Predict the structure.
Amino acid sequence: LVSEIKFLPNYQLQCHFTWDLKKESVDLEDLSTRLQNDIQLQLGKPGAVAHSYNFLDQQEEALSHLNQSEETITERYADESERRLIVTYGDMAWLKYHTGDYTHFLLFLQLKYTTGSSTSLLPEVYGEKAWTYLKFSRSSLSKAIDCFRKALEVQTHDSEWNAGYAIALFRTELVKEGEESPAIKQLRFALEVNPDDAVLQAMLAVKLVVYKKFHEAKDLVKKALETDPDNPHVIRYIGKYFRMLDQLDESIDMLERALKRADQSPFIHHQLALCYKRKKIAEQSRKPFSNQSTHKHAAYLKVLLHFNKHNSKLNPALLLYRSSAVLEAYLYSSP
């Protein structure tokens, strides 16, 4: 047993713990919260959450999430689950090795490599690696794009990887890069593969507004709301869509709906702050700020200040975003 364990470096484990994810690059509490919210919405797997818990020296929690990941993948992919579990078993092997449980380390190592060579990367590994880079931090987006491309070279029509690739391109692309930019092309292709992906419909609508394709964008928003009206990832982009059209009341209503299911989202709070700022400027240019708008604006500012007061020690990264939102809201809170 000991002689086998000495050769750990030769196995070249491909898992969340060996992908050079630096904890200095991200707020771990915020990452864990976001990833768990995604899992609840069926937008991700628990493996990356396990890695974040290991960063926080909570190895029992990490192992619990890996067990959950194994169950989720087995249920979702059935006969195809073996290849999808390669990274999960790699995670388990790594954790068992570093906690001194060498018997289970070798067991998971054997499970991990039943599909073939320990040195070759299957598209499933590239796919999971890509999703991890996408969710981990903005600085990892270029790595995510590269991994999605490699996975899709083998399985061109995989709906999950096409969606992830579209999201990664969307987040890295400049505001205006042409009507047939890489992000728009990939969003369209991903929707051909999975026409009912409401998140991608909302994201494409945001892109099309820039090029004044209002009719197509409106149709996409309608479909997204019919398909998945309670998903905060859908609602937040539709909120942005309405803000881009200067339909600020509609945008605020959408974003406040999204907050009910994702109240710690920096993106949503920032979008709300931008809406209130633009609304106040617009109304000041025409007439005094209405009592209704003033009260609504003041109520939102109160929520932000309350959160900052009670969560400043828990989530510095989120506090920074919300403090920015507070500043934007506060500067335009007086009539």
Q: What stands out?
A: Residues 39-57, 114-119, 309-321, 329-335 have pLDDT under 50 and may be disordered.
